[in-house]
Specification:
Blueprint lengths: L8 E7 L19 H4 L4 H10 L6 E9 L7 H53 L4 H17 L1 H26 L1 E7 L1
Parallel strand pairs: 1-2, 2-3
Helix pairs in contact: 2-5, 3-4, 3-5
């Protein structure tokens, strides 16, 4: 088995009661027999969750299945244009959020480094003491100093990772081929 997954084609079949449900969840409850077919998520949410589980190197195609009376000749073009606009807006939101997280993370890191220096500076003289209680306090100060750095590390490493993953998903969704067919 290869360490790297090969590029493959992924087709996402998306039954929707109306084209608008590509962006708005259908208003169905579990008492409705149609709930099994359509679920309670918008089409883009279904696509995004599917993309999260696939290699982003794959080629994606969405097939939107609409009831025969909902499918129109321009449905495919309308869906593709709307999805492209939607992804453009989502990508702009991600970029704004990413800049904010980065700015907040850098501030938190700078404050955290000051806290590490101060707390470790306070701990050093206490470590040299012969008192066991002061030794415990010194260790507590050192542990606290490093714990303070968890937030900025989380913001600058892990939060950015999730934003970048979402960015890739919306970029792939933007490029995705879309077909609309009438369900019989």
């Amino acid at each position: 088995m290869s360490l790297f997954r090969r590029r493959r084609d992924v087709e996402i079949i998306l039954p929707l009661p109306a084209l608008a449900n590509l962006f708005v969840a259908p208003e169905l409850d579990p008492f409705s027999p149609e709930y099994v077919t359509y679920g309670d998520q918008s089409g883009v949410d279904v696509i995004a969750s599917r993309l999260k589980g696939e290699s982003l190197r794959s080629r994606f195609r969405a097939v939107i299945e609409l009831p025969a009376d909902e499918a129109e000749p321009r449905s495919e073009q309308r869906a593709a244009e709307a999805l492209e606009r939607y992804c453009r807006v989502k990508l702009a939101e991600i970029e704004r959020d990413l800049r904010e997280v980065t700015r907040h993370g850098i501030r938190a890191l700078l404050l955290g480094l000051v806290a590490v220096l101060v707390l470790n500076g306070l701990a050093r003289p206490l470590e040299r003491s012969e008192e066991p209680l002061l030794d415990v306090v010194a260790e507590g100060l050192q542990v606290t100093a490093w714990v303070i750095l968890w937030l900025p590390i989380g913001l600058l490493v892990y939060d950015r990772w999730y934003y970048n993953r979402d960015r890739k998903i919306y970029e792939r969704m933007q490029e995705m081929e879309i077909s609309v067919i009438a369900r019989t």
